[in-house]
Design brief:
The structure holds two protein chains of two kinds. Helices cover 73% and strands 0% of the residues of chain A. Chain A is mainly α. Chain A has one domain. Chain A is globular and about 60 Å long. Chain B has one domain: Up-down Bundle (Methane Monooxygenase Hydroxylase, Chain G, domain 1). Helix content of chain B is 77%, strand content 0%. The chains are: A mainly alpha, B mainly alpha. Chains A and B meet through helix 9 and helix 11 of A and helix 1, helix 2, helix 3, helix 4 and helix 6 of B.
């Protein structure tokens, strides 16, 4: 900031705009549209989002029914048929990297667990893998800043802090879970509490579940009307269900972002100067709103690259996004009558909350992901080959080798 | 419920509100400093207020830049022209505060300036400049192209007036008891005028022409 400048050292004359040559009379200038009301805000979007949410639940129900219909062991899809926890973990990573959405992966896991095709125990590491796999998106986004070293350093460290945190908590919590089963036991206990109605003992019949069941039945009847039957019918149900999950989650994200764009912007402005719990709450709220942690964490990358958001303040937002994204699986579990569907969704939530409780409260532990991310970013700035090596090894080579070795 | 979900004011509207505050603060610093020089107000009386207001202007400039960056990140390319324009305009608004401080320094160095024969013309120029400064915010908000053009044309004439006065002072054709201070003040007022002209011209000038100037009037 230049303050008192002697006149001979002042900047170039700010100049005089053209009277005739610069812009046509009546033409609108550079500020045009600045005071116009945004058109993205439309109450109809809200109705559409609820419709998409319903369709999403129907798709989960459809997949659950399809897997059940195919019979035990017949679902040899990407996530089914894996019992080794390390294979499950790597499969969770690979699937999420492939579909670029942990929400899709966890929703599929919920449907598979609900159908009984994947056991609850086998699904726990898969959920953890989805947590790691989802971090690839913002890492790829940060590569856009690779040309300018200082910006890239900030962008890449912002992106990789998510990766490092998630890898660390998997490295600690997966062995702990295998030894003690603390996550699955807690989730089962919680799901029991949530599923029951307490002292009255009266079973609560959810109207949402009933309407989702009816919707799923209608889609099934539609598919049956095409003449398909037996295994082919169930395969088609899986395909339609999967396609619906993709489309619904994608459009929920698009419309919720359009609907809440001002609130997201205000929240991010507030988050610039905040850290800790408020940052986490903002990260979680944005992610719950747009149903995508990748959207939240990818928004942080350019802000960090520009230097307006520090890594220390981006970090809790990222952790909040981790928690916020678990809402998708919880929503998906609403489609099923199987209490294990809710339990696996709760594992996702408890895993992320436990990770925060493990690393965040102690300052020296809290700093580990930040230091790790800065180190990776420094290496990447010094030699761009590190970017390819890092992304390739963490998100493709290791998960692929792990899956081949442990399956 | 929908209004709550939507979050009320758009990011750009919020940024504009702060930009308007910057312009009002700029006018305040200009008035305070020029009153100390031309009105005989004791500079010590206005010093703290002037510097505090200038600090607020600088903070607003930085906050606007941050919010513009967040807005561009969230909205993508939709408002990119407005964002780039605002990044340019906040610099103009901030410079008004800087020139006010330069004027204040003249008041400190030349306490008897207001008693000289050159003061009357400068008081008139200062009053007209302040009056125009008061219009900048409204013109940016209303985006009235015709009024903005009239504004720019009026300022353009005043810029020429400043140039003529400086030239006359240099040649010794203008009676002045403090010719150096007078020349500097004309220069500072000219810069304040030019910066507010840049801001208002963005209502009808395309982005690439912002800050464009051509000393040769015939070619405009």
């Amino acid at each position: 900031m230049q303050l008192e400048k002697p006149p001979h050292m002042t900047d170039a004359d700010p100049g005089r705009p053209e009277k005739r040559g610069g812009a046509d009379r009546g033409a609108r200038g550079a500020l045009a549209g600045a005071n116009e009301k945004p058109t993205s805000a439309n109450p109809l979007r809200l109705i559409l989002v609820f419709a998409l949410l319903y369709a999403f639940l129907v798709s989960i129900k459809l997949m659950e029914t399809a897997f059940k219909g195919m019979g035990s062991g017949s679902a040899d899809g990407l996530l089914a048929g894996v019992t080794n926890p390390f294979a499950g973990l790597t499969l969770g990573i690979l699937t999420t990297v492939l579909v670029q959405s942990s929400s899709v992966t966890t929703s599929m896991i919920v449907a598979l667990v609900a159908s009984g095709e994947v056991t609850f125990g086998a699904a726990v590491p898969m959920v953890m893998g989805a947590n790691i796999g989802t971090t690839v998106t913002n890492t790829v986004v940060s590569i856009a800043a690779a040309r300018r070293s200082s910006q890239f350093y900030r962008a890449f460290s912002c992106a990789t802090v998510h990766d490092v945190f998630n890898i660390i908590i998997v490295a600690v919590l997966l062995p702990l879970e295998l030894l003690t089963g603390f996550l699955s036991k807690s989730a089962l206990w919680l799901s029991d509490i949530l599923a029951s109605t307490g002292s009255s003992g009266v079973q609560y019949k959810s109207p949402i579940k009933a309407s989702v069941k009816a919707g799923g039945k209608q889609v099934q009847e539609l598919l049956e009307a095409t003449g398909l039957e037996g295994t082919w019918l169930h395969v088609m149900e899986v395909v339609v269900g999967l396609a619906l999950i993709f489309v619904c989650l994608r459009w929920i994200t698009v419309h919720m972002k359009a609907l809440l764009i001002n609130r997201i912007e205000h929240s991010l402005n507030r988050a610039l100067a905040r850290s800790g719990l408020i940052g986490m709450a903002i990260g979680a709220l944005i992610t719950v709103s747009v149903q995508s942690s990748s959207i939240t964490t990818s928004l942080l990358v350019p802000m960090c690259a520009a230097g307006i958001l520090t890594l220390d303040n981006a970090y809790p937002l990222t952790l909040g996004a981790n928690v916020g994204t678990t809402v998708t699986a919880l929503l998906a579990s609403m489609a099923s009558d199987n209490p294990l569907a809710l339990a696996i969704a709760l594992v996702h939530l408890l895993f992320n909350v436990s990770g925060i409780m493990l690393l965040y409260p102690v300052p020296s532990l809290r700093a580990i992901p930040i230091r790790g991310a800065r180190l990776i970013a420094l290496l990447a700035v010094r030699n761009k080959l590190w970017i390819i090596a890092y992304v390739g090894v963490v998100f493709v080579v290791v998960p692929l080798l792990g899956f081949i070795l442990f399956k | 419920m929908f209004e709550w979900l939507h979050g009320g004011k758009s990011g750009i509207a919020h940024i504009f509100q702060q930009f308007g505050q910057m312009l009002e603060d700029g006018r305040h610093t200009f008035d305070a400093a020029s009153n100390a020089l031309l009105g005989g107000t004791d500079p010590r009386v206005v010093r703290d207020d002037l510097y505090a207001t200038d600090r607020r202007i600088n903070e607003l400039e930085q906050r606007i830049r941050r919010e513009v960056a967040v807005h561009a990140t969230v909205k993508g390319g939709a408002d990119i022209t407005v964002c780039l324009t605002l990044m340019s305009l906040v610099k103009d608004a901030e410079r008004i505060g800087d020139y006010a401080k330069n004027i204040f320094d003249l008041a400190t160095d030349c306490p008897a300036f207001h008693e000289g024969p050159e003061a009357a013309d400068l008081v008139d120029l200062k009053n007209r400049t302040s009056r125009l400064l008061a219009k900048v915010r409204n013109l940016c908000e209303s985006q009235d192209i015709e009024q903005s053009r009239s504004f720019v044309e009026e300022v353009d004439d005043m810029l020429s007036e400043c140039d003529k006065r400086v030239s006359a002072l240099t040649k010794g054709e203008l009676e002045a008891s403090h010719p150096v201070a007078a020349a500097l003040l004309y220069r500072y007022i000219k810069r304040v005028l030019a910066h507010q002209m840049n801001i208002v011209s963005s209502v009808f000038m395309p982005l690439d022409k912002l800050d464009y100037f051509d000393e040769d009037k015939e070619s405009r």
